[in-house]
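Dear colleague,

Thank you for sharing your sequence with our group. We've completed the structure prediction you requested, and as agreed, I am returning the results in plain text so they can be pasted directly into your records. Please verify that the sequence below matches your submission; if there's any discrepancy, let me know and we will rerun it promptly.
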Amino acid sequence: MATTKAGTRPGAPATGPDGPAAQPSRAGGRARVRSAARARTNAAAALLLTPFFALFVLVMVVPIGYAVWLSLFSEKQSGLGFGGVETVFSGLDNYTAALGDPAFREGFAVLLGYCALYIPLMIGGALALALLLDSALARARRFFQLALFLPHAVPGIIAALIWVYLYTPQLSPVVDAMEAGGIGFDFFSPSGALPSVVNIALWEWLGYNMVIFYAALQAVDRSVLEAATVDGAGAWRTAFSIKVPLIRASVVMVALFTVIGSLQLFTEPLILNKGTGSAVTSTWTPNMYAYTAAFDRNDYGLAAAASVLLALTAALLSFVVTRLSGGRRQKKAVDKQEKASKGSTA
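Please find the predicted structure tokens below.
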């Protein structure tokens, strides 16, 4: 007959090193290990992120804060203009002056027309070229990638100067060829200035965005495309019903960057404004308005206010784009869940 230790009942759990008395200490030890590992992970993350946040503060937060501070002050001359210039606090006067200036408001109207032309052409054109390069019928892919991307390697000022030459009558072979064919178009006229700027921007950025889309298409699982082909999907249906939805994240990213870049339109119209007799004025866009206010009129407070208003517009549009894309993804996820629940109940 088995015997037990004195003071213990048969079948009772042991209270030795492996019994219940040791379990709380083991749980506490594991918790301490997890806490130490978490602390080390947080310390490593903080160490690696510190350079980024330092640069972010120096090149983003500080300049934006200085621009906001500068926009609250104005420079005024005492007396009848013969006294010295003094800086005085003006509050929101610079913002009301910018918003009340018709030239500043017309600049936003120009940006609206520019975005209406440029964004669909940019995203649609880059996506179409990427789909063509990704198709099975494409040949010499690397050559066309390089050829289409090469204009992006040209600095914006140089690209604008090249196109100003190609737009100028009596100098441009393009204009001469158009006139010989009976096509008369003034690239510097009020109706032609906006398409001219859009064309320059497309030439610069179309290949860059095409490469982004093409890289995303190359990451698509080929077995999915093969399954679609087996199911009888044609090239068009495969492209727009399978490939494009699978690279939606890249499309949204390019759309966001394109919107932000459109609001920063400056270099191309500035070059067209210099000595070409173009309809592009010195305040044609909000960026040009701020540049003219700062360096031609020496009104840095007004320039800073215009820049802050433009930055707020860019932030608002970026928020709208991200919300719309996020709302669509959430709606699709909800639809999938509803379909799955209906299928399981059936």
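Summary note from our side: The first helix runs from residue 23 to 70.

Kind regards,
the structure core
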